[in-house]
């Protein structure tokens, strides 16, 4: 039977082989598609990874950009607050922040006379001239209303004083006597006349008092010429603007030697407070675009020198100090001072201003309230340094006390420096705070100059006060109309401020000096310089009371 069925099975062998081939082919295709799927899965996963990485990169990029924009917004808001304070805020640095004012609100001193304190002495006006005015009772009131008996004059008066200021323009008519010769000496003139009274501006109709009034009001009180002319017009005196400008030109020649002597005296000192501010000069000059010039001040112990220059560069410092002067320059952080000191070798030391450092922290506290507590803590540390140094300077004559305070001050400065370094090492320190401390680090070498030089102040406030009058004048008369006028302005600022440094009344000094120069134009002026003046003359020219004019101390 197996023999009978075998032929029937054989045909399936070919079919099985075909099925095997199909199976093999199907498996190959399955493997191919499986591999293709796997590749697609890997590609898809790779694309997914790349997509996630790209999303993460874009997210980080936008987060970084967002942070930058937020910082930019904060900076712009801080600048906006700064500009608002500059335009509308108080200019005094005595203004306290919220934290500082809240601490002292309960103990704040009231204005005016304090309860329980001694009243200040009355001002002395005995130096003023007295003009007696007699007042009489009306004739109808010199009889008794009951019996009509007359009152008898006792020959005495009951006096009371009233201070008046009588400003008036008048003509002082000088009548020079003429004399006729009575002899027959033909070699002599027939008629002689008393000499002409000398005037500081020859052939001018105006006397010395008029020129002094213009100089004092313009360059001490900061009034523009047109307003001074307007004031004189109210007193009946009409003055031409051109006449005054022409007179100033002649006065410049007269006062130039005084200005030069003051500069020479200044360069003999060994410490200067230097600063500069903008000034308008409305005349075109070569190699200068625009009308903005700069008014520089160099203020020493014995003199204050003002220089008007078209540029705010190191060249001004080089030209002023020359090649031989040595000393210490107190200044702000303007780069020209640093470059000048670095380029002068060992002739100069630089003393940077701690008040500017304090202002950095105060500005941060006002413009960025979130950092106010941090900033005011630094302000308090600076206040402590000032307090210790003030005590040290007051103890210069006591060696033992000075040594103790000097040691205390150096320790306080060392702690201040260490705290700065520790703060800068913190990575989480906000950028605005970091910028202030980095600036403090860069200028540290100049901020500690006062340690080795006790007579050098910690700040540059003296120079800033000296520029106050020029700023008042700049606001009132906008600057100078010509280069010549600008240099005359700097000359007058120099003379008036130097006189005030020596506590001399500029009006009285100018009056005496003009009389002297008008009478003796060729004589030396050395005896009229404040440091050479006779003590008796100096006493008569002293300011009678404390002053606070635009150029004065505060």
Task: Looking at this protein, list some descriptive labels.
five-stranded mixed beta sheet; alpha/beta; two-stranded antiparallel sheet; 554 residues; 19 helices; disordered N terminus; disordered C terminus
Please give a structural write-up.
- The chain has 554 residues and is an alpha/beta fold.
- Among the domains are: 10-50; 176-324 and 477-554, no CATH class.
- It contains 19 helices and seven strands.
- It has helices at 2-9, 11-88, 98-103, 208-219, 225-234, 241-268, 314-321, 335-343, 354-367, 372-394, 399-424, 431-442, 444-447, 449-452, 461-466, 468-477, 483-501, 506-519, 535-541, and strands at residues 178-180, 191-193, 271-280, 292-299, 304-309, 327-331, 348-352.
- The strands form two sheets. It has a five-stranded mixed β-sheet with strand order 5-4-3-6-7, with helices on both faces. Strands 1-2 form a two-stranded antiparallel ribbon.
- A hairpin with a 4-residue loop joins strand 4 and strand 5 (304-309).
- Helix 11 packs across helix 12 (431-442).
- The longest helix has 78 residues, at 11-88.
- The radius of gyration is 43 Å and the shape is elongated.
- The termini are far apart.
- Mean pLDDT is 88; it is low at 1-6, 100-105 and 548-554.
